[in-house]
Amino acid sequence: MSKIKYLILFLILFHPFSNMKAGDILTAQEALKKIFSENSTIVEKKFILNEKILGKLAMISNSAAESNSLSCKFYLGKTKDNETTGYAFIGSVAGKWGPIRYIVRINPSGRVNDVRIMSHKEKYGKWIVKRNFLDQFMNSHFSNTFLSEQDIDYITSATISSKAVEAGVKKALILFNILIKKRAPNK
């Protein structure tokens, strides 16, 4: 490879793109406003996670570390007529360099409508905030073959960050099915 090609590769990998810096991107309030329409009333619903739910979450998500909280919250988007338009889950998963905080919006039928990264510390995984990566999760729902590796295009040099976001979406859908839809996914 010529020196020019190495220089171009270096600039592509390490250029400090200003809109992709690690750190806080969205507060919870900002994220909820982006996820739901301006006319929505947002209602917070807190759930206590018992050992049975934590066990299912750990078993299905293949990571006990992700199920260390004893409670979680869903935010319901409501119309003026009190109709639920969607559910939002704010969570955190372990990235390579620190926690990745995210929000997932799920429609009443259980499909993902939106995913956004609220904060992260990833050095090479800064691409996880980009729409072309996050849009892969759109319309996902929980099933036994949910989000297999063939479904997700992981970001080169940021596989850990990519898989962490995937685990976060999976966690949101698992909790939605267990807590909101009141059905446990089979696995």
Write the layout of secondary structure elements.
Elements: H1 3-14, E1 23-24, H2 28-35, E2 41-48, H3 51-61, E3 71-78, E4 84-94, E5 99-106, E6 112-120, H4 131-134, H5 159-180
Antiparallel strand pairs: 1-6, 2-3, 3-4, 4-5, 5-6
Helix pairs in contact: 3-5
Molecular structure report:
About 30% of the residues lie in helices and about 25% in strands. A hairpin with a 5-residue loop joins strand 5 (about 100-105) and strand 6. It has five helices and six strands, in the order H-E-H-E-H-E-E-E-E-H-H. The model is unreliable at about 10-20 (pLDDT under 50). Helix 3 packs antiparallel against helix 5. The protein has one domain. It has helices spanning about 5-15, 30-35, 50-60, 130-135, 160-180, and strands at about 25, 40-50, 70-80, 85-95, 100-105, 110-120. By secondary structure, the protein is an alpha+beta fold.
Supply the key terms:
187 residues, alpha+beta, six-stranded antiparallel β-sheet, 30% helix
Which structural class do the helices and strands define?
Answer: alpha+beta
* Low-confidence residue ranges: 9-20
Q: Approximately how much helix is present in the residues? A: 25-40%
- Outline, from the CA principal axes? globular
**How much β-strand is present in the residues?**
15-25%
User: Count the helices. How many?
Assistant: 5
Number of spatially distinct domains: 1
Instruction: Determine the mean pLDDT.
Output: 77
Number of strands: 6
First-residue to last-residue Cα separation = 48 Å
Concise account of the structure shown:
The protein is α+β, with helices and mostly antiparallel strands and 187 residues long.
